[in-house]
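Anyone opening a protein record will find just a pair of labelled lines. A complete record is shown below as an example:
=====
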Amino acid sequence: MIHEVSMLAHAHPRSLVGCGVYSMVVWNILGGLDKFDAYSEAVELAGRSNGTLFAGA
């Protein structure tokens, strides 16, 4: 769903990944992580996903 919305203005794959990582950072902060840990977790998750985490773009 994130990609469907972000594609309106940011359809490049790099932008889609950025939007996905950003949304995961927000999700992690809302889940109680501080901003640095939230960012680290989001980037790590994106790296482990091999492009499947934000699939559907």
In short: The chain is about 65% helix and 0% strand. The mean pLDDT is 78. The two ends are 9 Å apart (CA to CA). The helical segments are 2-6, 13-30, 35-48.
